[in-house]
Write a structure and sequence with these properties.
By secondary structure, the chain is an all-beta fold. The chain is 0% helix and 39% strand. The protein is built from no helices and 8 strands.
Amino acid sequence: PNWKFKCEDEVRSSPRIQDGVLYIGSYDHNVYALDAEDGSFIWKFATKGGIASTPCLYQDLLLIGSEDSKLYAISKRLGTQVWRFEAGGRIRSSAQVEYGHC
């Protein structure tokens, strides 16, 4: 491996890479943004449940579901919440955007 990054629990999703940044969710309740070249930490965003879904990158947003029953829209640049949607149960599937709708 070129680099390693240690998080607090297992990774159950696939990463997404855009503009040199790797985005990945972990079952430690965090979404991480890492430099794809050297694995250095950029930011993390905490949810209240494990993350098993793969991030969806759309415009300036990262969309990801959590086992806390919420779909989060996170600023890719800042790692802060832009909005969230509460579903009726755990979100384990990966979001997709088509025609401007998630």
